[in-house]
UniProtKB/TrEMBL annotation:
Residues 3-94 form the Polysaccharide chain length determinant N-terminal domain. The chain crosses the membrane at residues 20-40, 174-195. It comes from Siminovitchia acidinfaciens. InterPro entries: Bact_polysacc_biosynth/exp, GNVR, LPS_length_determ_N. The keyword Transmembrane helix applies. Residues 139-194 form the Tyrosine-protein kinase G-rich domain. Residues 228-237 have a biased composition (Basic and acidic residues). It is a multi-pass membrane protein. This is Capsular biosynthesis protein. One of its GO terms (cellular component) is plasma membrane. GO terms for molecular function: protein tyrosine kinase activity. Pfam families: GNVR (PF13807), Wzz (PF02706). Keywords: Cell membrane, Membrane, Transmembrane, Transmembrane helix. PANTHER family: FERRIC ENTEROBACTIN TRANSPORT PROTEIN FEPE, TYROSINE-PROTEIN KINASE.
Length: 248
C-alpha cells in the first residue's frame, strides 16, 4: 500500500515539534553571533593600484604593439610582486615580524581582463599595517622591476588609504547570523520529520488504520470517567467491595 503525506499532516508534525525547531534555530543564531562578534578576529583590507604603461622612450604616445606587450607581461608581474625578492625587502623595511610565506598569504594580486591596471590588496588585523604593506609592496616592486626585467614601465596609480573609520571586510556578523538562521531552521525541520518518522508508537485511531491497514469500525469511550466528572460532588463516594449502587 503506497503511503501519502498530506499537507495537513506536515503542518501537524511541524506544530507538534515547533518548540524543538525554535530551540535549534535560536541556538544556531546565538552561536553564530558569539563567534562572529567575540571569537573571529576582524580583518581589514587595503588596496593600491599599479599601472603598466609604455616604456619611457621615443615611441609615440599610443603604440598598440607596446600596450599588447604590457598586457602579456602583467601575468609575469603578478608573480614577481609576490616573490621573495620583493617581499623580503618589504619585511626588512617595515620591520615586520613574519616570514615571506606569511606575508604572501596576506597579499592578493589581480588584474582586470585586457587592462593595464594591477590591483594589489592586503588583508591584516591591523588596518594601518595593511595600508603600509600595500604601499610598500607597490613601491618596492616599482623599484625592483627595473633591475629584474630591465624595463621602466610601472607607475603607482593609487596609493592605499585605510581612512579614519575603517570597517573590517570579514567577518560579516549580520550575514553569518542570517545564514545560521536559515541553516538552523532547516536542521530543526529536518530533525522534526526524522523524529516523527522514527516514532512508531500508536496514539490515535488514524495510527491504527495506517499500521494495520484496516478501517476503524468504532471507538470505545471512557464512560466511567465522563460520568464521574458530570456527577454531583455529594454523589462521588468511594464504592466498597461487594457494595452496589442503587438508583432512586
Amino acid at each position: 500500500m503506497e503511503e501519502t503525506i498530506s499537507l495537513r499532516e506536515l503542518m501537524r508534525t511541524l506544530g507538534k515539534r515547533l518548540n524543538l525547531i525554535v530551540l535549534i534555530t535560536c541556538t544556531a543564531v546565538l552561536i553564530s553571533g558569539i563567534i562572529s562578534y567575540f571569537v573571529i578576529t576582524p580583518i581589514y583590507q587595503a588596496s593600491t593600484q599599479l599601472l603598466v604603461n609604455q616604456a619611457k622612450n621615443e615611441q609615440p604616445a599610443f603604440n598598440p604593439a607596446e600596450i599588447q606587450t604590457n598586457l602579456q607581461l602583467i601575468n609575469t608581474y603578478n608573480v614577481i610582486i609576490k616573490s621573495p625578492a620583493i617581499l623580503d625587502q618589504v619585511i626588512q623595511e617595515l620591520d615586520l615580524n613574519m616570514s615571506a610565506g606569511q606575508l604572501n598569504g596576506k597579499i592578493t594580486v589581480q588584474s582586470e581582463k585586457d587592462s593595464q591596471v594591477v590591483n594589489v590588496t592586503v588583508q591584516d588585523p591591523d588596518p594601518r599595517q595593511a595600508s603600509e604593506i600595500a604601499n610598500k609592496v607597490a613601491a618596492v616592486f616599482q623599484e625592483k622591476i627595473v633591475d629584474i626585467m630591465n624595463v621602466d614601465n610601472v607607475s603607482i596609480l593609487t596609493k592605499a588609504d585605510i581612512g579614519e573609520n575603517a570597517s573590517p571586510v570579514k567577518p560579516k556578523p549580520l550575514l553569518n547570523i542570517a545564514i545560521a538562521f536559515v541553516i538552523g531552521l532547516m536542521v530543526g525541520v529536518g530533525v522534526s520529520f526524522l523524529l516523527e518518522y522514527l516514532d512508531n508508537t500508536v496514539k490515535t485511531e488514524q495510527d491504527v488504520e495506517q499500521t494495520l491497514g484496516l478501517p476503524i469500525l468504532g471507538v470505545i469511550a471512557t464512560f466511567e470517567e465522563q460520568n464521574m466528572e458530570r456527577a454531583p460532588r455529594n454523589e462521588r463516594k468511594p464504592k466498597l467491595r461487594g457494595q452496589t449502587v442503587g438508583t432512586k
